[in-house]
Amino acid sequence: MKWITRERPKIDRIACPWLIKNFVDKEAEFIYVPFSEVLDKAKQLDAIPFDIPNVEFTHYEEQCTFDYIVKKYGIDDPAILIMADIVRGADTDRHDIAKESAGLWAISAGLSHNITDDHKLLETGMVLYDAMYSWATHLYKQKHLQNSPFESLLHEVYNKFLKEKKTTKKKTPTWVNDLKAIIQDQIDTQFTFDLKKISNDLEMNPSYLSREFSKYFEDLNFGDYVRKLRIEKAINLIQNSTYPLTEIAYMTGFSDQSHFTRIFKQSTGKNPSSYRKNAQKSNPDTKSK
């Protein structure tokens, strides 16, 4: 079977071919073309499009295409499930999901920069994922320093130092307050959030910001924290305005009302219309505003 996706792969578009070759179709052929040509070429070549919007094999909510293939074909290999977390974290810039995600992103970006031929890049990437699979299968719990008594001792001392350091009260870094202001400004003006752009504005490394974020933002990752603020703003608008729910969804940065309704219900236990009815019953003055 032929599979087709957009050119210049980095993570999902190399991880998925590796997964397909090893667990779905050993004879699979992979084709990379410009994004605008993927669907037309798929019809011409009778190929399955993947990792682009509005096709079956794509991202769903916060999961990536690799996750969908695992679910679609019922792959229950424990090593693959470990890899899925790493691939998802790297492909969605959520390096808090797995500590290895930042490394996978760095290596994948470097390979893409060095190798301009997509099929050569895929061939090299296959070796990378073979190595990751072996690690996840046989070496997942092994530490680099565990076989060296001297280095293990240093590692133990260093960990003790870190624990002692964590017990002392830390001053909140300046960037935390700056980031809170940026997030609030974008919530209020309905801009699109871009963690890389925000990292540039703060003059910080995106991986470091993603890794440190939850320490200062209620133990939430970047996406969950932003969703929390958007829902809080939506609740305020529902309780204190007569804006239609569709408009509130737009004003709080959601792409459409169905997405808004789903996230709102996950956060509050009620859909927005029910929440508004209850708010109006408890505060009759809201109806006249």
Automatic annotation (TrEMBL):
Signal peptide from the UniProt entry: none
Per the record, where are the segments of Polar residues compositional bias? 267-283
Q: Which GO terms describe its molecular function?
A: DNA-binding transcription factor activity; sequence-specific DNA binding
Pfam families associated with the record: ChrB_C (PF09828), HTH_18 (PF12833)
Keyword hit for DNA-binding: yes
What does the UniProt keyword field contain? DNA-binding, Transcription, Transcription regulation
Q: Which InterPro entries match?
A: ChrB_C, Homeodomain-like_sf, HTH_AraC, HTH_AraC-typ_CS, Tscrpt_reg_AraC-type_HTH
Does the keyword section mention DNA-binding? yes
- The segments labelled Disordered in the record are 267-289
Tell me the ranges covered by the HTH araC/xylS-type domain, including all copies.
177-278
Protein name (database record): HTH araC/xylS-type domain-containing protein
Origin species: Flavobacterium fluvii
